[in-house]
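Q: Hi! Curious about what Methyltransferase domain-containing protein looks like structurally. Here's the sequence.
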Amino acid sequence: ESFAPFVATSLPQVDRILSLASVVASDVVCDLGCGDAAVLRRAALSTGRSCIGVEVDHELVLLAREICAGDAPGKVIITEDILENYLLSPSFASATVIFVHLVPDQLKDISSALQGRIGAGVRVVAQRYSIPGMEGSILKEIPSMPSDADSYFQSLGAAWLYGLRDDQHATE
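A: Let's find out. The predicted structure is below.
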């Protein structure tokens, strides 16, 4: 069951968060709470890489699969699963960039799993809400920006990039 209503991510916001994460062709991109898979679709089209999304809302899973089948066939895999199960999967373990489009309660529940992935050198981008308990791993924050839209939910919401800071990298 979904925790929050789906709010589509605008194309300008998709571009902002992909740029924030510095997604490149060698990345394995994962999106937790992928909704209509807008971020994954854009990442797959720009890098040529396969991406995986996780969504609990069955109708959104069907919508995302339909949208991606049109112009990113075979590049975006959408999994209908609860987060707790997915966090234990091999595909989560292989991700190098993780996008999270979740509400604060969900972010709090998975923050330790995300912190563990950051320790392995993974970049995490949170949109709209920062991840509780991970303040020490923030590399960059972009503030919310107004857009031409009247709705707050269509604005360019805040986003945070989490990862290992230079002083946190293990010395060899």
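A: A fun detail: Confidence is low (pLDDT under 50) at residues 150-154.
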